[in-house]
Amino acid sequence: MQKNDVYKTITQPSEEILYKDRKSKFFAQAFPIASEDDVKPFIEELRKKHHTANHVCYAWQLGAQARSYRANDDGEPNNSAGMPIYGQLQSFDVTNILVTVTRIFGGTKLGVGGLIQAYRTAAQMALENANIMERVVESQFKLNFGYPEMDKVMRAIKQKNLNIVSQKMEMDCELVISVRLSEAEDIQQLFGEMQEVNIWVKG
């Protein structure tokens, strides 16, 4: 059974690919993004790089579970560029990603159907060329306990194979652990039932 705390994304930009259709050139690329603010610098960079380009069209998707997206036609006919690119993001089921397709017009009009096909194909090629990997959505918890509870807490962490993000070990100990979202409730209960151990979700 696939857990709902896994998502697919990329960690580095893909190499730019070129797709040609009736002398129009479509340069496509995929970029990892963490927020909507990351989008604009990439677009501006592409406008500089391809200064003869007529359109820099793109689509992005963000969020591991609740997803938001935007598609931009950048002057091409409505829904002929951004949405076909976005369709490929859905098809590859990727998120936290921006796919751009930069068009240099070759003198022959492609028509709306031709544009949809070209933008879709270029976006598909960019994603096929990207290194897509799975990531796990995690929750972080803070644990506070006295030194005498150390053994009990460490044993549970080892047994459950949890990651320790940070630790302060003094008379009062503080640990931050990261847990798969699908296991978070069980882990919270496990430590919550321990006497002398305080656990809360790290905001």
TrEMBL record:
Span of domain Impact N-terminal: 22-127
Gene3D superfamilies in alphabetical order: Impact, N-terminal domain
Domain of life from the UniProt record: Bacteria
Family: Belongs to the IMPACT family.
PANTHER family: IMPACT FAMILY MEMBER YIGZ, IMPACT-RELATED
Name this protein carries in UniProt: IMPACT family protein
Organism this protein belongs to: Flagellimonas iocasae
